[in-house]
Design goal:
487 residues; alpha/beta; 5-stranded antiparallel β-sheet; 14 helices
Amino acid sequence: MAKDTPDSVVTPQQAETLTPDFCIIGAGPGGLAVAATAAAFGQRVVLIEKHKMGGNSLNYGSVPGKALLAAAKRAHQMRHAGAFGIMPADPQIDRQAVHDYVKDTIAAVAPNDSIERFTGLGVKVINDTARFVDKTTVIAGEYRISPRFFVIATGSSPAIPAIPGLADVPHFTNESIFDVTEPLPHLIVIGAGSVGLELAQAHRRLGSNVTVIDAAAALAKDDPELSVVAVSALRDEGIDIRENTHITSISGDGGRVNVTVTRDGATELIVGTHILVAAGRKANVADLGLEAAGIRFDNAGIKVDTGLRTANGRAFAIGDVVGGPQFTHVATEHAGIVFRRALFRIPAKTTSRPLPWVTFTDPELAHVGLTELQARARHGRVNVLRWPYGENDRAQIDRQTRGQIKVVTSKRGHILGVTIVGAAAGDIIQMWSLAIAKGLKIKALTEWVAPYPTLSEISKRAALRYFATAPSNPIVRKTIALLAKLG
């Protein structure tokens, strides 16, 4: 590669020109999904990634996070085996071994996202930074790429709040917390959203004292009736969750961190040993040259229409970089929308399917569709159907009776939204996602046979509550009486 400019950087004029069908910037879940599908349909694909293949989800997000939770759950089960007649034991936590297990899990998944796999699929992978030089061209390393379509899938990074003193104190984010190999005596978590509470519970179960601080309510985006069940469970495990609490300053010295907070006019000092910042994320839009491409963006991310097309007609943007819900499954859903629109001209939209989300604490908290408050605001009168885990035989068997399902329907029985808090909520919510996506009425959720004993029976039990008044309905009773007379 010739490098005869003063700063040894290849200029656009020197770069080799590529003219693929798709140029994808970012090799996270969304970018990889577009690349693999496009290649499978015979499209010429260039994939550009400046960091690690697999993006945040594989390296710093869902995979290591859930692996850490899995390790922590085993420790918790050992401590509470007495409920099953087994002598409980206080586990000896080897943080180096836990670290190695998390890294091994990432390594086991990584081949699916590797350069070698995608090269084998016919994708040209460029491990370098990408920058638009005009509306039709991107420069990456020694290449000048001018495709039919761009797909920007650069994801997001941890947002660091502007708290006085935080920048001067060492702190973890999700991009560094999984490198821990030593015990964390007292972890202070900034942020009581899904990520903050999942990591708080994992570290508590692995032996740390944990304090969580948030300026709003914990799990604020979820139905408050059910989120309080999850939050209460975390508090019962000894996690100190400070809601509606503002951090005024942070300082640190000698292996300790000092966090000054205020709530209801009172000031308090919280002393810990380590800080984890889990206070949201910011879209990765810097240094992409979006202005040169004619792509509009702001601090929230790239601006797109419901078809994920940017202001530049040949450029799409997907996943975290467009703002909105930041989940791996959202990025892969976006990938499908872009592919259908770009290749088949199908008018797919982001509004066509309900979005489920799950907080993988124990108990899990899962949701799809509208919350009760949203449904009442939009539809007026609604029906609310509930069924507790305590009335489920499998939950009793497994000693996992904390939780309930809550289903919101219209007066005519259309399913509007479902929230579940309890064991396996993330798995149980899936049938409700399908039901809402297909526009089913609640009656359809009574017309299947639930195997016994399973936690999924709570779905059918809740659905049957819609017809709970039928036995006392005068018309139904008269019909039964008439049929009886007919023999």
